[in-house]
Amino acid sequence: MAVRNLVGRLLHAPENFISDGLIDDISKHGLNADRRDFIRKSFAAASAALVSGHAVAAADHPGGEGDPAILTLPKHSTSLGNPVAHLPYGLPSNYESNLQRRESPGLTRKRESGVAFTPLQGLFGIITPSGLHFERHHAGWHDIDPASHRLMINGLVAKPKVYTLGDLMRLPSVSRMHFIECGANTAMDWASPALPSVQYTHGMLSCCEFTGVPLSLLLEDCGIDKRNAKFILAEGADGASLTRTIPIERALDDVIVAWGMNGEMLRPENGYPLRLVVPGAQGVSWVKWLRRIEVGDAPYATREESTQYTDAMPDGLSRQYSLIQECKSVITTPSGGQRLMEKGFYNITGLAWSGRGKIDRVDVSVDGGKNWKTARLESPVLSKCLTRFNFDWVWNGKPAILQSRAIDETGYVQPKLAELRSVRGTRSVYHNNAIQSWRVEAAGGVVNVQIS
Ligand SMILES: Nc1nc2c(c(=O)[nH]1)N[C@H]1C(S)=C(S)[C@@H](COP(=O)(O)O)O[C@H]1N2
Ligand SMILES: [Mo]
User: Ligand 1 within 6 A of 134 CB?
Assistant: First the structure.
């Protein structure tokens, strides 16, 4: 009852709620401790006639005393807002315009090879908004007219076929949430901490809901020669003619020929109108602008799986056809380039994923790996999908080293950098899934470090 009265007054007589003099005083002197005390007294006097309610409670709140942002009704509360359909397709708030995909000065910006990284430090939950999905192009992107785009399936099939997008969209579809990570994610950090922020160290990682037709259905439709089919080759329609070999067991498992991403058609830079979704596999296998699938009996050894995307091992040989992205995690806040303003409580949050299934557990250390505690996994925890974790932390104002370690449902434990290097050496570029360390300095700054 009392609250309702107060709300009524706020709505109908906002000008009378706080004296003009008080507002002037705040703008002249700012909000230091003395001012706050002064304002609280003035406020108490000004509001003496009011019964208790929201605004009074806010004034009594330690953080909210005398704060004009809560005491004064702003213009937007006392005037009409914008009409609908100002933008038929919505954009984020102007105040969020700093959250963008970014290119790395150290990496290429050419049309022959481009990367734009997802700003993981500013995202919540597990879904990457479509406009912030990372981009990796071997020959630039195109906005392809879906009416003239075709998908051909040939090779070891009884009935080779050519599908239009319309043909495909009439078929039974599935929608699944999966992460995609470029095999070169975290590549720069093999030897030393190279990049300042999680956007650049881990931002070739995104996670969306994809919609499309299971590839197994199309292969059945074309009468796949089950006895001889051992591999497929997926080919893109871009100038790179990007091609990758995929073993037939995977092709017939959970692979999707997708047109949908986060509830709408794929974005052009992510493969519109068709892309292959290969859950758990490294990004390069998720062929964009997909135009052909050939069924064969041997791997194809294309450029992207012979000269590129292989791992130089310590014995001088190269590891080839590493399809699956192993279990990995990273703390996204606090992370490199961020700053803790004061000691006290912080929510440590991050992402964990595994190309082999679900995340089973994530541990967090705040002392560089001496002690570990189990973090909370937020639902949903899905297979071959990002999983969000949260961890309560009270920072004592002293230097700290924050790490996360993920364990997947196969029991695989994300390795320390030294463990990974002992098997893989330091000549690799791709497939670095080591534990990431962020050092919180006494002044509150957070930097990328490597500890053994
Ligand atoms: N046709 C085609 N498909 C492609 C690529 C490409 O350049 N051309 N890049 C690949 C690589 S290396 C990655 S990591 C992913 C990136 O997908 P995204 O740009 O949607 O993030 O697409 C893969 N599919
Ligand atoms: Mo990639």
Answer: yes
284: Cβ below 6 Å to ligand 1?
Answer: yes
Q: Are 101 and 190 in contact (CB under 8 A)?
A: no
My answer on whether 339 and 310 are in the same domain is no
Q: What is the mean pLDDT of residues 91-114?
A: 85
358: containing domain: 328-449
> Which CATH number characterizes residue 143's domain?
3.90.420.10
Give the separation between CA 214 and CA 175, rounded to whole angstroms.
10
Q: Is the CB of 275 under 6 A from ligand 1?
A: no
Task: Judge whether 94 lies within some domain.
Answer: no
pLDDT digits (tens, 9 = 90+) for 272-282: 999 999 999 99
Distance CA(98)–CA(118), nearest Å, equals: 12
Q: Rounded CA gap, 136 and 432, in Å?
A: 17
pLDDT-derived band at 7 (thresholds 50, 70, 90) equals very low
pLDDT tens-digit profile of 44-67? 433 433 333 344 444 455 566 789
Quick one: tokens of 101? 């995909």
Pocket residue to mutate for ligand 1, from 286, 291, 308, 309, most atoms within 8 A of Cβ: 286
Instruction: Say if residue 194 is in the same domain as residue 296.
Output: yes
Residue 25 has pLDDT above 90, yes or no: no
Nearest-CA residue for ligand 1 atom 19 is 135
Which residue's CA lies nearest to atom 10 of ligand 1? Answer: 284
Structure tokens at 299: 């791997």
Q: 254-301, pLDDT tens digit by residue?
A: 999 999 999 999 999 999 999 999 999 999 999 999 999 999 999 998
- Taking the centre of ligand 1 as the mean of its atom positions, its distance from the CA of residue 76, in whole angstroms, is 44
Distance CA 380, CA 382 (A): 6
Nearest CA to ligand 1 atom 20: 270
Q: Which of 262, 294, 319 is the last residue of a domain?
A: 319
pTM (two decimals): 0.86
Closest-CA residue to 183 (of 246, 142, 125, 136): 136
Specify if 82 maps to a domain: no
- Report the number of distinct structural domains present in the chain: 3
Q: Are residues 167 and 291 in the same domain?
A: yes
> Which residue puts its alpha carbon closest to atom 12 of ligand 1?
284
Ligand index nearest the alpha carbon of residue 144: 1
